[in-house]
Design goal:
Oligomer: single chain
Shape: globular
CATH architecture: Alpha-Beta Barrel
Strand order of the largest sheet: 3-4-5-6-7-8-9-10
Number of strands: 10
Order of helices and strands: EEEHEHEHEHEHEHEHHEH
Number of helices: 9
Distance between the termini: 46 Å
Length: 271
């Protein structure tokens, strides 16, 4: 029996995958920063944050329209109206937009608003959703599942790749361990492991790994040092009043410091 070589494997493709999103190249020479709030809370909020991060190194705007929350009583996003606000922010700033898709039923009406579809950790095993996203051509940022092994993570990516969409970005966002001092445990190990195994771009989300804004900077620096192609960080104009994940969201001053420290520490990296 012939051994199947996964499409994500370097044995299948030696050259590093580079993904073009409007005027942004992911997986190229530049470090890509995705920044924005956990949730789109209002038109004014997302426009203010978009205009701010645009001038401070961000290439892509994040913002949740539909939010999977542990508690059904928590704020779960504005839904379709948030997509309108994200599109307006894109038109104003030129930033590409990434937001999370939770169901195959959302694809049709989300399609014209989104540049990159994010698959959250809870949906890494939602194979129906992965296959539907594989049948369209927009990039997919796939987050690692809460307790997924690297091999399971890569196999989830295969579901997208196998349907013809080669534009897959892997995102480490921390895994669940016995440790309780942080929200999750950032698996720095997985970055060089993935670099060895796959040609796909690798991002890291230090905000969800830490669950604490004071740890985001050192974790981001560690991720870049380990070889990440980009980072995704939560930024809010008033974290103390955020409707979701305020404790892990950087305010403007902290975000500026993050960009400064990256530029200072990695002089050979262009943002």
């Amino acid at each position: 029996m012939t051994k199947i070589i996964p499409l994500s494997s370097k044995k299948k493709l030696q050259l590093k995958t580079k993904i073009k999103v409007n005027n942004v190249e992911i997986g190229g020479d530049k470090l890509i920063i995705i920044a924005g709030p956990c949730s789109v809370e209002s038109r004014e909020q997302i426009l203010d944050i978009a205009e701010y991060v645009k001038g401070k190194g961000a290439a892509i705007l994040r913002g949740g329209a539909f939010k999977p929350r542990t508690s059904p009583y928590s704020f779960r996003g504005l839904g379709r109206v948030a997509l309108e606000y994200l599109l307006e922010a894109k038109k104003r700033t030129g930033l590409s937009v990434i937001t999370e898709i939770m169901s195959i039923h959302e694809l049709e009406y989300m399609y014209d608003y989104v540049d990159i579809f994010q698959v959250g950790s809870r949906n890494m095993y939602n194979y129906d959703l992965l296959e539907v996203l594989g049948a369209q051509k927009k990039p997919v940022l796939l987050k690692r599942g809460l307790s997924a092994t690297v091999e399971e993570f890569l196999m989830a990516a295969e579901y997208v790749l196998l349907k013809g969409n080669s534009n897959v970005i892997l995102c480490e966002r921390g895994i669940r361990t016995f440790e309780t001092s942080t929200r999750n445990t950032l698996d720095i190990n997985c970055i060089p492991v993935l670099k060895e195994k796959t040609h796909l771009p690798i991002f890291v989300d230090p905000s969800h790994a830490a669950g604490n804004k004071h740890y985001v900077l050192p974790l981001a620096l560690a991720a870049i040092a380990a070889g990440a192609d980009g980072i995704m960080v939560e930024v809010h104009n008033n974290p103390g009043k955020a409707l979701s994940d305020g404790e892990q969201s950087l305010d403007y001053k902290m975000y500026e410091r993050l960009v400064f420290e990256i530029s200072k520490t990695f002089k050979n990296i262009t943002i």
